[in-house]
Amino acid sequence: MHILDAIGNTSMIRLRKVVPPDCADIFVKLEWENPTGSMKDRAALAMISLAECDGRLKPGDTVVEYTGGSTGASLAFVCAAKGYRLRIVSSEAFSREKLDQMAALGAELTLVPSEGGLTTKKLILDMIEAARCLSREPHTYWTDQLGNHDSIAGYHALGEEIWTQTNGEIDAFVHCVGTSASSRGVATALKRHKPSLEVVVVEPAESSVLLGGPAGPHKIEGVGIGYTPPLWDQSLVDGIVPVRTEDAKAMARRLAREEAIFAGTSSGANVAAAIRVAQRLGRGAKVVTLMADSGLKYVSTDVYRPR
């Protein structure tokens, strides 16, 4: 068995303590079981493997990407396994653990300054431009996650896993939007089986651009880029729920203490939004969401060390 074969087939459990009475059941997929502790392993493997297959990425090439950390760690993992040099553009706005994990796996980091450690549209665009400059060097492949359709294919298997683990008894899927590849990939797979299934996406309330609001700074890492992501497909989405950063952090802490589920901020946002959907659907329905990554990526942040 190869290390890359360890990606996928993650566990699913039902939440028991944080869900209010008279709600639908809420199930969470433990994506931290992937090798780097994040669902992004699925997208990273798809982006590298599909680029190898059609010759965009050749032996000896260097891979370049901009990332808040989880995609970078996943790319570093895949590139280490396959023998590619990796150059990452990131920022001190993202957790120290994520930056350290990327470096530990061999990524060469370029850090772009942020505005007070916050995720903003300007930061994302500055990171993209820095990666674009690096990508102009010879023998370089830029994965460009926000515009890379290969990443969507990486999540089709996740949708199939959810369908199988619920025995097809699922009424809604809820998940945060970053690149939108994961929600789009999962929704595509699930709606093939059940077109009536609701897909509800989540975004930071402070930057609720998908609902027509203004872009703003927030601290839900990995999501809410401040503009509609290029991979966004409105036709697959049945609803959009905004969640405040503080509510996402509070739910992440509750999950750890009440459910023994140690996850990141976007996972807290996922559950906060899933509860709203579950309250609307009521008893007898089933809602599934994702624990996108491990809380181990955030132990130095104010998610788990309130300042």
Summarize the structure in words.
This protein is α/β, with parallel strands linked by helices. Strand 3 (62-66), helix 2 (70-82) and strand 4 form a beta-alpha-beta unit. It is globular. The protein starts with 11 loop residues before the first strand and ends in a 16-residue tail after the last strand. The chain has a six-stranded mixed β-sheet with strand order 1-2-10-7-8-9, sandwiched between helices. The protein has a four-stranded parallel β-sheet with strand order 5-4-3-6, with helices on both faces. The chain contains nine helices and ten strands. The protein is 36% helix and 17% strand. The model has no long low-confidence stretch (mean pLDDT 96). The protein has two domains: 3-35 and 150-297, Rossmann fold, CATH 3.40.50; 40-147, Rossmann fold.
C-alpha-based Rg, rounded: 18 Å
Shape: globular
Oligomer: single chain
**How many domains comprise the coordinates?**
2
CATH third-level topology of the largest domain: Rossmann fold
Give the number of helices: 9
Mean pLDDT: 96
CATH architecture classification name of the largest domain: 3-Layer(aba) Sandwich
Number of strand segments? 10
Fraction of residues in helices? 25-40%
SSE sequence, one letter per element: EEHEHEHEHEHHEHEEHHE
Largest sheet: 6 strands, mixed
CATH hierarchy class name of the largest domain? Alpha Beta
Class by alpha and beta content: alpha/beta
The N- and C-terminal alpha carbons lie at a distance of 44 Å
Tell me the fraction of residues in β-strands, as a range.
15-25%
User: Are there runs of 5+ residues with pLDDT below 50, and where?
Assistant: none
Strand order of the largest sheet: 1-2-10-7-8-9
